[in-house]
Structures are given as structure tokens and as C-alpha cells.
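Hi all, posting the design record for the shared folder.

TITLE: backbone redesign
STEP: 1 of 1
STRUCTURE INPUT:
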């Protein structure tokens, strides 16, 4: 079968190969025919080495498809079922799961060190234990979440990561108060989803901050009240908040520099929500006096900060009701053979989300 492979960490191009085989099928596993997958910035971060991932590997973790085969012991799925792939499934038994913090379950991370694929040259891993830039993938049954018939594969794929992460940051982690002021720094697919979440919660002012003009224009269509470049943030802060700072600031880039900017633009007593996934050697510096004196809450948001399955269901309900726009997030579509074009679209910021049609 075909899959897009990164041979070595640090390379910026993927090679589409046809000699890949999905492996690991057995009890408790399912084989999934991937139909659509989104390109998330985390895929680029894994390719560059910002996020730890063994190589060679097949990127992609935001996918949807249909069940081809189920292993022994799998009762809730059958061949033909439509599913979204969850890269962070909950085991239901660990301390985090028992506390109701299923997004902090580490069981899914254990899959990342086990090869999902092989080829004549040896083992190939799947990013985040999945690897959706492939025609087929074998995953634990808990990673395959059934979706209703009326949810297209491309929409379901977005729900598998970016939309759940961005919406959840606003709805779960921050629990944005109606009438509040919000700034979102970084307006790709995840940031735009945070904008939509803030709008759903009734924020009075939602300022989108991004260096790419097309993304700023898109943010306005999705509910931002203002959209500015990073250089204009200080001026809009003065106009919107009288210089005090925003009630909520979402950092959706994953860099200490933008997190520091987000902190400085959060009002005293306000909330900074860290959504972007950054590098282990990139440190955010705060002095102990400001941390005490400003009493700003710093809330990291992992995969939307709430139960993933409930978040999926909520997003589908909001989409059906026309309360969130998911179709509009897909600005580009490419076949798997043109995956490197999708990478360029992400790097230049021309795409909110590119759907790779497998």
C-alpha cells in the first residue's frame, strides 16, 4: 500500500512509497482504511524534531476512515463502520482516567514507540501511534471512534485533533465568560477553532493575531471582532482594553516568545491558555515577583482539556446545528501523491487546514 514516509528527522520532504505494510493486527486491534486526513502543525514539529518521534515514520494523526477488519475481543466495532482516529485514547483505568482527566492518559503515548508499519528496509513508525498519511493503519480499537453516517470523512478528520484542541481550549480549559475580551495568538486551524469557541461562549471582543494576512481575514469570517498582525497587538490592546490587557489570551504557536507575549497581554488576574505544542528545550521565563503580583492564571490545554469522546460528540452536535463552521476550515485539498505541496501550504501559512484525500 501507499504511505508518505519521513526517513530521517530534520528532512523537510516526505517520500510517497508503495511498499508499506500496516502491521500489528491482532486481538484488541482494528485495521482502518483511511479516507481523509488533515495536516496539523504537530506533524511538521515531529518532522523537524521539535516533538519527539522515532524515525522513519509516517506522519499524520488527524484522520478518519472505515473499519476493514476487527481483532478478537473487539465488540463495539465491525467492518464497514465509519470512524475518526483518536491519537490519545483513554485506557479508563489509570489515575488520570479515574479522576476524569482522560486527556492526560498516557496509554496512547505507549503506542508511539511500537512500529505501525514495515517495508523491505525495516520497521516504520506511525506518528503519535497512528500515522494517517497512509492508505491503511492498524491501531488499538480504542483509537477508532465511531461517527454517524452524516459526518463526512474530511469533517471527521478535523474533529480528530485540531478542532477538538482549539474548541476545547475555549470551552473546557478557559471556560470563557460571556462579555469578556479574548486574544488568540496564532490563527491556523487550531487557533481559528479557539476563535469559534470564544464566540460560542459569548466573548464580547475576540482579537485574532497572526502575521499572515489571509489568516487574519479568515479569522474575521469565523467570529473574530478584530484581526491584527503581531506588530499591531499593543495598539489594539490599548483600544480594546484601555491598556489593561485581555481577560483571556490563547497562545496557539508553541513558542516561548509568543507565550511571553501572551502573558504580557493578559490582564492582571486574567487567564493565559497555552495551546501550542512546543519543544522540550524552549523555556518560558517568568520572574517570581510578577508571577505572584499579577496573579495571572496559566492554563496549559492538552487536546482540548476535557474528555475527548464527549468533545467529539459536542463538536458534531454544534456542527449539525450550524454553530461552528468546519467545512470552512478546509482551504486546500490534495491527493496523497502531492503531500509535499500540503507541507508547503502549512509552512507558508496559506492554508488553515489542507485535507489529504487518501
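Okay, here is what came back for every position:
SEQUENCE:
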Amino acid at each position: 500500500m501507499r504511505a508518505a514516509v519521513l526517513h530521517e528527522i530534520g528532512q523537510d520532504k516526505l517520500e510517497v512509497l508503495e511498499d508499506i505494510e500496516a502491521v500489528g493486527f491482532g486481538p484488541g486491534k482494528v485495521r482502518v482504511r483511511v479516507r481523509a486526513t488533515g495536516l496539523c502543525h504537530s506533524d511538521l514539529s515531529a518532522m523537524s524534531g521539535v516533538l519527539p518521534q522515532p524515525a522513519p515514520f509516517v506522519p499524520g494523526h488527524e484522520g478518519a476512515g472505515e473499519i476493514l477488519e476487527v481483532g478478537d475481543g473487539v465488540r463495539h466495532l465491525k467492518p464497514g463502520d465509519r470512524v475518526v482516529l483518536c491519537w490519545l485514547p483513554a485506557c479508563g483505568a489509570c489515575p488520570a482516567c479515574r479522576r476524569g482527566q482522560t486527556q492526560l492518559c498516557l496509554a496512547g503515548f505507549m503506542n508511539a514507540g511500537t512500529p505501525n508499519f514495515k517495508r523491505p528496509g525495516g520497521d516504520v513508525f506511525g506518528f503519535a501511534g497512528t500515522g494517517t498519511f497512509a492508505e491503511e493503519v492498524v491501531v488499538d480499537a480504542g483509537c477508532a471512534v465511531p461517527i454517524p453516517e452524516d459526518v463526512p470523512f474530511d469533517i471527521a478528520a478535523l474533529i480528530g485533533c485540531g478542532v477538538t484542541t482549539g474548541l476545547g481550549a475555549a470551552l473546557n480549559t478557559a471556560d470563557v465568560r460571556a462579555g469578556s475580551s479574548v486574544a488568540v495568538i496564532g490563527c491556523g486551524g487550531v487557533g481559528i477553532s479557539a476563535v469559534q469557541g470564544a464566540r460560542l461562549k459569548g466573548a464580547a471582543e475576540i482579537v485574532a493575531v497572526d502575521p499572515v494576512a489571509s489568516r487574519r481575514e479568515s479569522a474575521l469570517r469565523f467570529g473574530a471582532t478584530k484581526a491584527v498582525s503581531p506588530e499591531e497587538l499593543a495598539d489594539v490592546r490599548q483600544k480594546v482594553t484601555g491598556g489593561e490587557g485581555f481577560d483571556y489570551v490563547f497562545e496557539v504557536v508553541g513558542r516561548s516568545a509568543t507565550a511571553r507575549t501572551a502573558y504580557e497581554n493578559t490582564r492582571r488576574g486574567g487567564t493565559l491558555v497555552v495551546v501550542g505544542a512546543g519543544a522540550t528545550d524552549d523555556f518560558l521565563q517568568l520572574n517570581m515577583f510578577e508571577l505572584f503580583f499579577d496573579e495571572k492564571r496559566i492554563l496549559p490545554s492538552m487536546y482540548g482539556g476535557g474528555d475527548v469522546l464527549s468533545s467529539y460528540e459536542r463538536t458534531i452536535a454544534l456542527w449539525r446545528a450550524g454553530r461552528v463552521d468546519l467545512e470552512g476550515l478546509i482551504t486546500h485539498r490534495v491527493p496523497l501523491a502531492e503531500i509535499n505541496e500540503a507541507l508547503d501550504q502549512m509552512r507558508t501559512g496559506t492554508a488553515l487546514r489542507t485535507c489529504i484525500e487518501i
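COMMENT: The CA atoms of residues 269 and 296 lie 5 Å apart.
Let me know if anyone wants the other runs.
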